[in-house]
Design goal:
The structure is a single chain. The protein is mainly alpha-helical and 504 residues long. It has one domain. It has helices at residues 3-58, 61-74, 78-105, 107-114, 121-146, 151-174, 180-210, 226-264, 269-287, 291-310, 314-341, 343-351, 357-364, 367-382, 386-407, 416-437, 447-470, 475-503. Helix 1 (3-58) packs antiparallel against helix 5 (121-146) and helix 1 crosses helix 6. The radius of gyration is 23 Å and the shape is globular. It starts with a helix and ends with a helix.
Length: 504
């Protein structure tokens, strides 16, 4: 993938994912109003269970298929490319149906004894169809990412999110749902419906792409057997699946023990769920909204690095890694600056709440490290260090579990322990990952540039605080102006200073 294609595809995904992110944000705002903070807490307890079984079904598949697809596509080996996709679809539909059936049968046990909230049982049953469709969709998304058709899954994702929001609003309003059990279940039914529609559209576009004229001509000297093609993909995806499953299991455990530790700290269960909803369901949604850019880069980064390794183009490999790490850190710093300068504005704008400021401030301290950490995980994946990725992910996940268990049980800290653990584990992940990446390529980051980033961030934060105090416009316009000004000012000053230094 050329630099132009990398930047072009990253930009396309960022723009489209920004739309998706806005839709997710709107969805979170709607949920907060329809479910309340307690309902958001319950919704947040079920989601890790869903993520856990998604990892078991299709963990690592998108990355594995995109890597294989990019290699076949670069060689114009369309026969083996399409045969790989067809083989994986057959394998996953069987595997996903087995897992979904087991989840449905054991939903009562999961709800009562794992989540420890019987109100979650119907929601667990509702996610079972989604597990099958997510598994199948992951294969087709990997195909499109590997063949540089990133716009197709991106636009389908927008459509899916729009349908999901619409269904939730219609169902809750049409049936006047007030009870938490019914409203949360309706949200997960909408999730399954959205994943079904997403798979249908992905498959239709895949058939169109597959049947294009160039797919009938392949430069392959040998047509691989189905077993070999499946083995090639599983060889990459299984370590990633184990990694995602183990880390998601630990993270799910962390999420599930949080309300119990808060209760042990003297907080009643309903209030504990409310605190979780405000921190993880609302505040973290604000902090990680710019993460859309990181996610977009990561999607096209993995096949890009794989192709550079395959072609032994180590110069491009090194430059791409430096570029991605720098961009991730700058986005994290700018997010920290905006969130720590105007936290009350953000809480009121997006969730109409005045009690999120301390959560937003604390969580924002993790942004620079969390963003870089996520990028370094994608880099390790792209340079075929799945074993190292597994080890580091598990270590940081265990660290987070221990920290959450200890900190959230302290009455004076309670839910803030969640944020403290996020900061510490993100720093740990960055240190571990960069140490391994440096073994493959030379990385050097200028201390002068780091000092510039900090000074520009401090200046931007100070200006935002001043503007927030002197501007008397309507709240929404003022808030949007402050947010846009914060990010624009930071990156404009950084760009001008960087160019000035490089010209010298």
């Amino acid at each position: 993938m050329s630099k132009d294609n990398f930047l072009k595809n990253s930009l396309i995904l960022t723009l489209v994912n920004s739309t998706t992110g806005i839709l997710k944000f709107i969805f979170a705002i709607i949920l907060s109003k329809k479910l309340g903070s307690e309902g958001m807490g319950l919704y947040g307890l079920i989601m890790p269970i869903y993520d856990l079984f998604c990892c078991l079904i299709c963990g690592g598949l998108i990355a594995a298929i995109s890597k294989e697809s990019s290699i076949y596509f670069s060689k114009k080996d369309f026969k083996n490319l399409n045969k790989s996709v067809k083989t994986c679809l057959s394998f996953v539909i069987i595997w996903a149906c087995i897992i979904a059936l087991l989840v449905f049968i054991n939903s009562n046990y999961i709800g009562k004894f794992i989540i420890k909230d019987s109100r979650s049982i119907y929601s667990i049953k509702a996610i079972c169809p989604a597990l099958v469709f997510v598994g199948l969709s992951s294969i087709l998304k990997g195909y499109f990412y590997g063949t540089e058709k990133v716009k197709i899954p991106a636009f389908i994702d927008i459509f899916e999110k729009t349908i999901r929001i619409t269904v939730v609003v219609i169902v809750i309003n049409l049936f006047s749902l007030k009870e938490i059990t019914k409203t949360v279940t309706s949200v997960y039914i909408a999730l399954s419906l959205g994943e079904l529609l997403s798979f249908i559209f992905l498959y239709v576009f895949y058939k169109i792409e597959r049947n294009k004229k160039y797919n009938f001509y392949s430069y392959s000297n040998k047509l691989e057997g189905r077993a070999q093609l499946l083995f090639n993909i599983l060889l990459v995806s299984i370590p990633l699946c184990i990694n995602e499953f183990l880390t998601t299991t630990i993270y799910a455990t962390s999420t599930l023990i949080t309300p119990r530790r808060l209760v042990s700290a003297g907080i009643i269960h309903s209030e504990a769920l409310s605190m979780i909803g405000k921190f993880s369901g609302m505040s973290l949604s604000i902090i990680f909204f710019p993460f859309i850019v990181i996610n977009s880069m990561s999607i096209v980064l993995i096949p890009d690095l794989s192709k550079s390794l395959y072609n032994k183009d180590y110069f491009s490999l090194e430059n791409r890694i430096k570029e991605v790490i720098t961009i991730s850190f700058l986005i994290g710093i700018s997010t920290l600056v905006v969130c720590i300068s105007i936290p009350n504005v953000l809480g009121n704008l997006f969730f109409n709440r005045n009690d999120l400021s301390q959560y937003i401030k604390l969580a924002s301290l993790s942004a620079p490290f969390s963003y870089v950490c996520a990028s370094t995980y994608s880099i390790l994946n792209g340079i075929n260090k799945q074993g190292i990725l597994l080890r580091n992910s598990v270590l940081t996940a265990i660290e987070e579990l221990i920290l959450i268990y200890i900190l959230t049980g302290i009455p004076e800290i309670n839910i803030l322990g969640y944020g403290i653990s996020l900061i510490i584990t993100s720093i740990t992940g960055v240190i571990l990952n960069l140490r391994e990446i440096k073994k493959i390529c030379y990385l050097e980051f200028s201390p002068i540039n780091l000092l510039i980033y900090i000074l520009v961030g401090t200046l931007t934060g100070y200006i935002l605080i001043v503007l927030n105090n002197i501007i008397t416009s309507t709240f929404v316009l003022k808030s949007m102006f402050l947010i846009i000004t914060g990010f624009t000012m930071f990156f404009t000053i950084i760009t001008l200073l960087t160019k000035h230094i490089s010209n010298k």
